[in-house]
Specification:
Helix content: 40-55%
Radius of gyration: 19 Å
Order of helices and strands: HHEHHEHEHEEHEHEHHH
Shape: globular
Oligomer: single chain
Number of helices: 11
Number of strands: 7
Strand order of the largest sheet: 2-1-3-6-7
Distance between the termini: 52 Å
Length: about 280
């Protein structure tokens, strides 16, 4: 009797999966949206045109179906700047460096827009924070929080990247710079995926930090450490959704890209309902 009941449950589940709408069908039409991606290696893996199957951006594009999509991501990038960070539009070292930061990806995006090579993005997705946690000895201030006074920031945000050494400050700076040229763009922040290189509690702390800052600025936030497919305890035993414990395999990229596409779609659809 018990076996028959379990068989019925399994059959029902298989039928549900078989007839469940695809990820594409679940999303609205985004054929008029220009999308820009910023971030570190897991975004960089997809390539500037988002066609590499080991990057989530390829599967996001195939699911979300935007009008255009461009990636300005760089391997090794961090949110946090250093005292030596300056605007640099050309460096592409693909490892940790003073100028390999999200700030400079924002600068490159703004320049591309200024010279007519980039259409105005309606959606900007930024995925970073892994390297801030992984190489914390090189970003010692990254996870510090600014002191608050009467619920206000103690100091005015400096537009000099070298003065913004924490994740919190760097997110705020990039947000302000993006709003200068793209005031109506939806901005979505992705927290780091779990990784075997960094203790889960530290990734969770960085995720909570990015989430807090992002929500405070009015951005949407996707907690990849909670909703992403990578589980550090599983990847430490057998690489399935990553190829090295940190960077996604094709399977992991597909699962994550489709998840991100549908989460972003939910955000946009919900906002459209509220505005109607």
């Amino acid at each position: 009797m018990i076996i028959k009941e379990w068989r019925s449950i399994v059959v029902a589940m298989l039928l549900f999966i078989a007839y469940m709408p695809s990820a594409k069908a679940m999303c609205s039409n985004h054929s008029e949206m220009d999308v820009v991606l910023l971030g570190d290696s897991n975004t960089w893996l997809g390539g500037e045109d988002c066609n590499n199957s080991k990057g989530w951006s390829k599967w996001f594009k195939d699911t979300f179906l935007p009008k255009s999509i461009s990636s300005y991501a760089r391997s090794g990038a961090t949110w946090a700047n250093t005292p030596s960070t300056v605007c640099n539009l050309t460096e592409n070292i693909e490892v940790l460096g003073d100028n390999n930061v999200v700030y400079n990806q924002v600068c490159r995006l703004k320049y591309a827009y200024a010279v007519g090579k980039q259409p105005v993005p309606e959606l900007i997705i930024i995925s970073a924070g892994t390297n801030d946690a992984w190489f914390s000895q090189h970003r010692p201030y990254a996870m510090q929080r600014r002191k608050k006074s009467d619920n206000q920031r103690e100091n005015t945000l400096s537009l000099e990247p070298s003065k913004n050494l924490t994740i919190e400050e760097s997110i705020a700076l990039c947000y302000e710079l993006l709003r200068e040229d793209f005031p109506d763009a939806e901005i979505v922040l992705l927290t780091p995926l779990q990784t075997i290189k960094v203790d889960k509690s530290i990734i969770e702390f960085v995720g909570e930090l990015i989430e807090s800052v992002g929500i405070g600025l009015g951005c949407y936030v996707i907690r990849q450490d909670l909703e992403g497919c990578v589980r550090s305890n599983e990847e430490s035993k057998e690489k399935v959704n990553t190829y090295d414990g940190t960077h996604t395999s094709e399977r992991g990229a597909r699962l994550n890209g489709e998840m991100i596409a549908c989460k972003v779609c939910e955000f946009i659809c919900e906002e459209n309902k509220v505005s109607e």
